[in-house]
Structure formats: C-alpha cells, structure tokens
Design goal:
The chain is an alpha+beta fold. It has eleven helices and 14 strands. The structure holds flavin-adenine dinucleotide (FAD). The site of flavin-adenine dinucleotide (FAD) has 28 residues, from strand 2, helix 2, helix 6, helix 7 and strand 10.
C-alpha cells in the first residue's frame, strides 16, 4: 500500500547535541535518517514502520575524515563519493574505497553514508567485509557520552545490532597498519553495476619467506551477518601456498559460511563461489598480483 506523506513527521535539528537529546527523551520513538537511501526504499514500498524521522544528514559532527598518525576516523555521515575519492583511504584502505565505488550508482554514492550501511545491517552490504578485515572500531555516541566497540560482533544477527535505541554511530576508526599488505576484493553480482552481491569478499594478506605470515578474509551475502573466515585464516597462517593448502582453504571456507537460497542466488552457488574466491585471493597473494 502507498504511504501517505501526511502520516510522517521529519525534523532536522542541525546539531548533534539536539539530535541526541531528542533521542534520549523518547527512546526508540524517532528513526534517524542520514542519506535516506535505505529508509526511503522502505517508505516507498509502504514498509517503513517509523512515522517520526530525525534527520542526521549533513550534521557537522558526523562529517569529515580525520587522518591521525595511527588511525583514520571516518565520520559516519561520510558518503561513498567522499570515501572513494579520499587519497589516504584509496592508498591504505583500498578495500573500502573499492566497496564505495561499487555501491549503487553515482547518485547513490553521493547520498548513501557509511553509517547508514553499518546500521541498516544488510548481510549483503558492500562496505562491511572491508570493515571486518581492517578490524574497524565504531565510535558510538549518545547523550550519555561516547563509547568505542569493535565492529566485529556489532551485528548480532540478521538486521540486528548492538546499538542502543538512543545511540548513533558517530565515526569509524581504522588503524593504519595495512600498508604492507596485499589487498583483495571481489563482488559477484548479476552485473557489474547496481547489483546486490550474491557473494562479496574482502581480504588482506602478507607473506614472509614465502609463507603466509598474516591474513584476514571476510565475506558478505553468505550468512545472516558479514562473516570473517577465522578457521580458514588459522588453516592457512604460517604455511606455504601450494595445491594442498588451496584445497584445505577451499573446504574450510565452504564449511564456515551459512549461505541461503534466495532470489539472487542458491546456497550451492554461493558456496562454490566462496571457495573459488578464497583460492583466487591466495593465488594472487602468492604471486603478488593485484586485482
Ligand atoms: C539504488 C540503490 C542501490 C544500492 N546499492 C547498494 C550496493 O550496491 N551496496 C550496498 O551495500 N548498499 C546499497 N544500497 C543501500 C544503501 O545505499 C546503503 O546501505 C547506504 O549506505 C545507506 O546509507 P544512508 O545514509 O542512505 O542510510 P539511511 O537510509 O539514512 O539509514 C539506514 C539505516 O541506518 C540508520 N542510520 C543511518 N545513519 C546512522 C548513524 N550514523 N547512526 C545510527 N543509525 C544510523 C537509519 O536509522 C536507518 O535505520 C543501495 C540503495 C539504493 C537505493
């Protein structure tokens, strides 16, 4: 059924403090809206349960990318365009820049925010495997103050998070420790642009003396939440990449995911593609090739 705009209220207080005060006064009564690229899809489909919307778009306190000596802090209100155009992100966190560049079309990239992608909590969200691989921390804020939580574990189940009802994501913090790593990203969808992933992968790795000294692999669209392949990482770490290790990695990766059949793909296809991509990542890590 079509929504009647007169049933909805949208306020835009313009400062973070006022937004947080409103959220604290009536916990859960207001739905924050940033770029609106997820919220408005629900609205247009008549599936938006919230009637009172609190705009956080363009709040100065949620904007900007701060480059510090040991970390970069990305405001939750940063758009994909800002992410993919940022020099330090492109150089040191290319998986995030890559994910930003393949998130929807240009209009969507000008409007969609990283905070919205995190809190919307889709298992198919493109930027989330990169955040897992880079071991991101989230800076959450409420009228009670700020707290930092690891991004890993923030999604507690399908579309659920650890965010309290009066909290916002203020920023994403990434430690600047991956410049010596090989970075690998792939999104497998029905087509190259404007497609929701059937499987997406982000991975980093480093070799020392021809052995895998360190690696991280994360996937989207293969479980209720974006998933880090911890068992696969353990199986590979410290070893030389050869055909038997590739076989072990393929099998371990397939055993760690929990894919489903849905309109975009089958569980079997997702499982096969996961193994193929893990193998491709390890082969390229071995030869130092870039995607
Ligand atoms: C045409 C189209 C194509 C798309 N393609 C892709 C794609 O390829 N890959 C992909 O991953 N996504 C895609 N999306 C989904 C969407 O663009 C992203 O998830 C985007 O990052 C959402 O950000 P937003 O600012 O628009 O969120 P909004 O719609 O404003 O909000 C989404 C949710 O997050 C909450 N929220 C937003 N910001 C915060 C914050 N700082 N703190 C707390 N809660 C917050 C809102 O309350 C809401 O629940 C697409 C959407 C459209 C319409």
């Amino acid at each position: 059924m079509r929504s009647d705009p007169r049933d909805y209220q949208l306020v835009a207080p313009g400062t973070l403090h006022t937004v947080l005060a409103i959220m604290a006064e009536e916990p859960g009564a207001w739905l924050p809206i940033a770029g609106g690229t997820d919220v408005m899809v629900l609205y247009a489909a008549g599936k938006l349960p919230a009637r009172r919307l609190l705009s956080i778009w363009n709040l100065p306190e949620l904007r900007g990318i701060e480059v510090l000596p040991g970390e970069i802090r990305i405001g939750a209100g940063c758009t994909y365009t800002e992410l993919r155009e940022h020099e330090v992100i492109a150089r040191e966190f290319p998986l995030l820049a890559r994910a930003a560049s393949w998130t929807g079309g240009i209009a969507n990239q000008n409007r969609g925010t990283i905070g919205g992608n995190i809190v919307n909590a889709s298992p198919a969200a493109d930027s989330l495997p990169a955040l897992l691989v880079y071991e991101a921390e989230l800076i959450l804020v409420s009228i009670r103050g700020e707290r930092r939580v690891p991004y890993a574990g923030f999604h507690t189940g399908y579309k659920t998070t650890k965010l309290a009802v009066d909290e916002l994501v203020r920023a994403v913090s990434l430690r600047r420790q991956f410049s010596e790593y090989f970075h690998y990203a792939r999104k497998v969808g029905a087509r190259n642009a404007q497609a929701i992933a059937k499987v997406c992968v982000a991975a980093v790795g480093r070799l020392t003396k021809n052995c895998v000294d360190d690696l991280r692999i994360a996937l989207g669209s293969v479980a209720p939440v974006p998933l880090r392949l911890l068992n696969t990482e353990i199986a590979v770490k410290g070893k030389r990449i050869d055909s038997s290790l590739l076989m072990v990695a393929r099998k371990t990766a397939a055993s760690e995911i929990r894919p489903i059949n849905d309109i975009r793909s089958t569980a079997r296809y997702r499982s096969q593609v996961t193994s193929n991509l893990v193998e491709e990542f390890l082969r390229q890590l071995d030869t130092g090739a870039t995607v």
